[in-house]
Amino acid sequence: MNMDMRPASIETIQACLGRPWEQVAGVADDHTMAVQAWLSTRAPRAARFETPGVTAGSSGQAVRLLNLALGSDYPPGTEDETIAADIEAVKSFFAGRAVPWYWWLGPNPRPADMATRLEHHGLVFDRPPLPALVAPLPARCPALNPDARVWLAAGRADLEAASTIRRIAFRFPEGVAVDYFESMADDWLNGDPARLYLARLGDAPPAAIGALVMGAGVPGVYVMATLPEWTRRGLGKAILARILADATAAGDDLIVLTASRLGYLLYRQFGFEHVFDYRIYRPVEA
To answer: Any residues with CB less than 8 A from the CB of 103 and at least 6 apart, and which?
Structure first.
């Protein structure tokens, strides 16, 4: 699929969101880092590791996206030796957990050459940059499938269905994260900070999920997934429309997400603008 995934211009961001690029990027980055730290540390076997400049969270699951080192925010003047020791400490933390992991760098790491420092410590740029998108609220909405039904998760059966959808759609290894939502039932059923949505067509079984998660005072869209046999039926659109409507009703004026390549075109239909890219690093495999 040929698509232009370059960030929007500074002028476009200002016109669309009514704020300078620097402010929008800062809000999006603060939100995303807060939520990703929360998501990676809520599982029963989770652990957290922090230094003054970086936060790391490990779910304990053998899935890279569930084990993350986040950002780089060292005060000016921090000694090079301190940063180097922290990078090695983060590597040791994940090695002790025996899980694969990523290190995310946002739009303004401190120090600015943190990517080079990670590479010097054996990490490699892993994947195409991960787009961070922001939309104003209320958002525009394309035509929806009238047969799509969306509801908030209300009990264990919904959580079990959501775990299955996520595992299959994200192609997790067999036996990994099979009870992802059930193991954190209170987080996903109480609506604070997360609301989990499911969707189906007519009377068919649940086939798609998505979540609204608050972080740093801002709402975001997460875990959007549809079973392969139910794609292109409008279920993702229906869930996203409901999330945006609920965020608008709560009084929020913008919403954040990080987009996979497959989801990028969907989000653009709802008025999301591409603000910046996360650079994703991983350790060199032994």
So the answer is: 68, 69, 70, 90, 118, 123, 280, 281, 282
